[in-house]
Each structure stands twice: as structure tokens, then as C-alpha cells.
Amino acid sequence: MNLPARFHPIGTPGQPWGAAEKAQWRAQQRVRRRYVDDVGVAIDALRGRFDVQQYGTIDYGPGETYPLYAVRSRDWDDGLPTMLVTGGVHGYETSGVHGALQFLEQRAGDYAGKANLLVVPCVSPWGYERIHRWNADALDPNRSFRADSPAQESAALIALVAPLRERVLMHIDLHETTDSDESEFRPALAARDGKPFEPGGIPDGFYLVDDSERRQPEFQRAVIATVAAVTHIAPADAQGEIIGSPVVAEGVIEYPVRSLGLCTGITDARYTTITEVYPDSPKATPQQCNDAQVAAVVAAIDYAMANG
């Protein structure tokens, strides 16, 4: 096995992590921002206009328990289409969380009486506080959306949406691709799994991930067209790819989301997409990243409502 000269500091090259290595990794994680201050306060401010539900609790021991919140349309009507918005599946992806909150604050009211909204702004609060991709068990929640999920975060969201699985028309999951993916998280993943780290590139700009098994290319194009007015769209690399996947349309790649255990596979929604914002771009500000997420959500809902 050809291993890189520079390896992640935890573990032995070529050997997957065991309990000791995972414990060492977890002991190094530090709280860098507060979920209750950033997310909890924002959700409390919405209670006058929306129904707020605590749908579960993440519990990693003393001092590491977190309530999980979903925000629903107040006048839920089973005769209306249901739209699902999720953010913070990867807790470190800031605009996914704050874009969802900004959508609730600024635009969600536009759909009163027209669509049912179910918005989960922060699926992974432990990761949000530590600005990390994984949960406390060194698991990626966005590879864990499957039956008997080992990730608390994924299992709780699956249970929340289970009664609506066949009634959700559109599901948009808000993400970011960051420079730390390449500098921190991909090397850690390789080390955890006992595999060699293969360097890659980070695309400069916004892109979407469609479901290769339930393709909706016109839906993806409509979202890209709207977001392009807010921020720049990621170009394909020299191989015609974005992060190793062929570009099938401007700013669009595809994954088999259910087999990978991704969040957009948890319902039978006709329209699904995963946003990817690039917050480290010199061409984008944090507010622009949030605005791009909001634009994507609005475009996705509008397209689904217009096309049924």
C-alpha cells in the first residue's frame, strides 16, 4: 500500500481506528461556539409565527446534551404540498444552519396557506459547536441516514419525517464545501478508515447534488439559475468534474443518495437537492453564502409548487 508521507496524527497508517483512537480524537475537540446562543435564540424568536417542536435530544454525556428543533408552518394543512428544509447535517457548515434560519425569518411566511413547511435548521448541534463534520462518535451523520442508524442525529431526523415520508414533495438539504474539507476532514476520514489520503481540490463556487437514481435535471437547473444571481456557480475542473464527480449540467453533479446514506434519501420526495456553498471563496462573504442558501430554498419550493 502506498501511504502518504504526511499522515493524520491519530492512528497508525493502514489501520482503522479502534475505540482508543476515537477517544483520543474526541478528547481533542473543543467547543468553539454555542448552539443555544446561535440557534436556540433564533428559533425562540420564531415561536410567535411558527410551531416549534423539540423532536429529540442528542446526548453524549454530562454537558453534551442538545435539544433538537423543527419549525413547522402554524396552519398545517394536509391538503397542501409539504416542503422539507434541513441544515447543519454537518455541523461545521455554517451557512447551512444560518441560511435555514434566515429563510424562516425572511421568506417562510410567503408560503402561509400555500405549502406546509418543515424546517430543521441544525441537525447536528454537537458538530455545530465544535465546527466539525462528524458527531461525537466520529461518525458522519450524512453517511448514516439508513435503518438502525448508528448516528443519533440521523436516527432522530428519520423518526421525525417518517410520518410524512410519502407526502413530502420537495427536500432541500443545505451544505457547504470548505477548504477544511481538504486540510482536515478528508485526511481524518482516511485515517479513521485506515486508508491512504488522496489529495483533491475544492471547487470555487456554488453547486448542487442531484439524486442519480431519481434525477430531476430541470429542477436543478431552476435552482442554479436563481442562485447565480446571488453568487458565482462552481466551474468544472480540467476533467469535467466537481469533487471527483462528472458535471451533468452547470453546477450540478449526481450521487446515489440512498445507497450512500445521505439526508435527501429519507423521504419519497419527487424533488430533492443538496446545496454546496463555498464560504472560503475570495468572491463570497458570509452573508452572501446565507443569501445563496435562502435563494436556493425559495427556488426549490417555487419550482415544486409550480410543477407538482
Automatic annotation (TrEMBL):
Keyword Zinc: yes
InterPro entries: AstE_AspA_cat, Peptidase_M14
Domain Peptidase M14, residue spans: 31-308
Needed co-factor(s): Zn(2+)
CDD domains per record: M14_REP34-like (cd06231)
Keyword match Hydrolase: yes
Pfam annotation, one family: AstE_AspA_cat
Keywords: Hydrolase, Metal-binding, Zinc
Protein family (similarity comment): Belongs to the peptidase M14 family.
Name of this chain's protein: M14 family metallocarboxypeptidase
Species in which this protein is naturally found: Pseudoxanthomonas mexicana
